[in-house]
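Justification of resources, computational component.

The compute hours requested in this renewal are based largely on the per-chain cost of generating structure records like the one below. Each record pairs the submitted sequence with a full structure-token output. That output is archived, and it is also reused by downstream analysis tasks.
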Amino acid sequence: MKESVESETPGPCPLCPGNESLSPPEVARVGEGGQWHTRAFPNRYPAVRLEAEASFSDLRDAFAPFSAHPGFGAHEVVVASPSHLTPFWDLDLEEMVSAWKLTQGRIRDLYQDGRIRYAQVFLNHGAAAGASIEHPHLQILALPFVPAPARRLLEAPECLVCRVLSHETGASRDASRRDGGRLILESKHFAAFVDFAPRYPYQFSIYPKGHASSFQDCPSEEIADLAQIFSTSLHRLQHLLGSVGLNVALYTMPNEVLEGSAPAGSRSRDAREPGAGRTTSRMHWFLRVFPRTTRHAGFELGAKIPIVQVSPEDVAHTLRNTGA
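The structure output for this chain reads:
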């Protein structure tokens, strides 16, 4: 089932050039001579606020039964381009690189506040994926705790992403997988794989090939490579499925000392230095793409067990051979 991607709300677009007064004051901008290519500012309708009390004295408090805490954090928007109708993956590579780099800078800046533990970066495209504005943009929700998906990566006895990469591309690949398995495509620094047990059909992830914990420390050369493989992967997906709503989520290193959590309000400089966390943590940063091709029904919601409607290997084979 394909969902409509219409996501426009009435009135002028607050993300378009000339409408800057409709958004809160900027916190960062890329551009010269009064023109901008990429800019960031607080969300007009934030899910969390820095003005709220940061009440977590221990990260376990965030997950205690029946606990409730003020909505502390930061919620920012990164406008990827002045162009209103261009999806994020259709931007030229220079614009996309600029957006990813500005996002890196915003994460590093937000992590200067020791109360912030994790920055969740995400993209919504289409009404079915929760988007209310069509203009290409990313969002950052900075939280005082580490959400469960990132904690799972941190607490695993080994790097889960490296295990995936080894299984799919290393010597352990068995004869039945020599046709490519779940691999969609790869570049110098990244590989895109269809997920083994996806929540949605055609769901896939883009992983750095080398172990790297921190997206915010990713070098410029690799960011350019990321932009290329992201664009190519999404073009293939759209060529195959047509105009479909989707979400993209980034998983990266939290703002904490690698040996444990620092007290609330303190600063963990080791986690902020350029290059810190690239090879010394079990965290392995990556992007995950969720095409909203289906709606979850009672079984999926009740049992939290996805029904895989299309074989991931078949999806990967189709995407590898899609001429986009």
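The first helix runs from residue 93 to 110. The chain has a mean pLDDT of 83.
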